[in-house]
Amino acid sequence: DLRGKPYYALNVLTKVDCLDHANSQILYANDDPMHILRIKSYGFNEDQVPPDVPIFKIPDDVGSVFVTRTFVDAVIASELRGASFEDPRSDPFGKIARGEPLNVVPGLSQ
Question: Which of 50, 44, 57, 69 lies closest to 10, judged by CA?
C-alpha cells in the first residue's frame, strides 16, 4: 500500500520477435547499421505474436512493453485504474507536441 492505496508492479519477461522493420521508422547508428538507436514508430508482424501471449517485449527494444487487444479488453473488464495505452504506430513525441492525448483506448478509468 502507498498512501492507503494498493499498487502493483509487473516485470514483463516474454519477448516476441515480431518487429516488421520495413514498416517501422527506425534510426540506426551510422557506424553500425544493425544497431538500433531509436524506433520512432513500430510496425508488427502480428501473425508472429502467439495467441496466448497478451503482453510482451521485442528483442529490438527491450525497454518498451507491448500488449494485444486481449490484454486491453481484460484491463477494461477488470476496471483497472491508471492504465494508458499508446498506438505503437504513431510517434508519441509528435502527439505531445500537438497537445494530443497519448491514450488511444476509450473506456479506461484514470
Answer: 57
Contact 48, 16 (CB under 8 A): yes
- Separation between Cα atoms, residue 3 and residue 68, nearest integer Å: 32
List C-alpha distances in Å: 70 to 7, 21, 34, 46: 22, 24, 32, 13
Q: Report d(CA 40, CA 93) in Å as an integer.
A: 9
The reported pTM is 0.82
Could you tell me if 79 and 38 are in contact, meaning their C-beta atoms sit under 8 angstroms apart?
no
Q: Which residue has the higher pLDDT, 87 or 59?
A: 59
DSSP 3-state assignment of 97? helix
